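hey so i finally got around to running the thing on that chain from the lab meeting. sorry it took forever, my laptop kept dying and i had to restart like 3 times. anyway pasting the input first so we r on the same page abt which one it is
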Amino acid sequence: MAGTVSDKHPDWTDRADEWAMMRACARGEKAVKEAGESYLPMPSGFRAQGDGGRAMYAAYQTRAQFSEILAPTIRGMVGVIHRTEAQVEMPASMQRLWEHATADGLPLEALHRRITGELLLTGRYALLADASSEGSDLPWLAGYTAEALINWSPARDFFVLDESGLRRVGFRWREQKAFRVLRMEDGRYSVETYTNETLDAEALQPTARGGAGLTEIPLVVMGPKDLSVTPDEPPLIGVARAALAMYRLDADYRHQLYMSGQETLVIINGDAPQAVGAGVVITLKASSDEHQPDAKYVGPAGTGIKAHRQAIQDERDNASAAGARLFDSEKKAAESGDALRIRYAAQTATLTSIALASAQGLEKALRHIAVMIGASPNEVVVKPNLSFVDATLTPTDAAALVRLWQDGAVSYQTLYENLQRGEIASAERSFEEEYDLILNPMEQAEA
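ok and heres what got predicted. didnt touch it at all, straight out
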């Protein structure tokens, strides 16, 4: 059987549960609890109840707290990677993308942050250079999450994008199935669109400016390490797993606290009272000298509470080891500068690969746009920030760099790139533009 447009690649199916778990943990307690027993199994004793344990499970789940550590970790890492924005060079004809890079008006820097966030969350993101539907002569970039890229070919000559979602009909919103199929046929790029798995029309063949056909599908797939089409494990899956482990332990811990605080009145050799509590007097009468009545409260000893608390703390340590401590860049009291750099380099290895993949993917997507409008793709360059600690140059360091340039030991380009990394020179100007500004300050000021 040929299958249908909604069929999934086996690797997509293999990673789908991981992506769903990462999304739920990033959204927080509401999403995790809505998943019910997927992330918090019902204790077996609850099922013996008349309602199958639904009421007890609802209370058990309500008392539990989910530690929302994944989303703040991702936001912190995005902030570290984009502490200083990437340097992006583009032809003059593409400058409008700085303010309007996507169909929903997202600026280029914000799109770059979104890419980084998705790579941290699911380990996958795709960018399609797409012709504007508003008559603009400049294409824009359409982003697709890991879940939206449902099928592909290792040869990169076939992709299926799931564009299903809510569509407004009048005042109401309705769910609609929609798909986009990208193919290379006879050396030319073609696009098919489907609604509810039915082909809308004949395949379209997008062209570059001047009518030339595109010889490559303008879709870039990014992973946490490179631009491979094969899905990789989400970089922060360890943090999500630790958060869910804490959630399950917390549910048991709070259930024990609840049960140990709910003592039960036991009546021996007497009739049970109609009510208990403050203000109620309980009188027990002896039925005989041999069977004296007695009343007492009994409750669980709660011997496992301490062990649960320790287990929760252990999982917090696991979460830290999986990613939360990547931001611990403060120098220890007796730590040398070299030791700090070595320790921090080891901690930020994953951040470095993600920053590089994000920048490389954005660069390749922008180069696709350059080809589509007839500009030179080699004029597009994206240089990411790879300095995740404070790299500001001191005045002494800056002066030493300038002397090296004056003495002919380094080129002006090398000097300028170091000043950019040291956060002295502008990250948005090339060394040529900066040098021209030095030589012609009045012309630049008038401009």
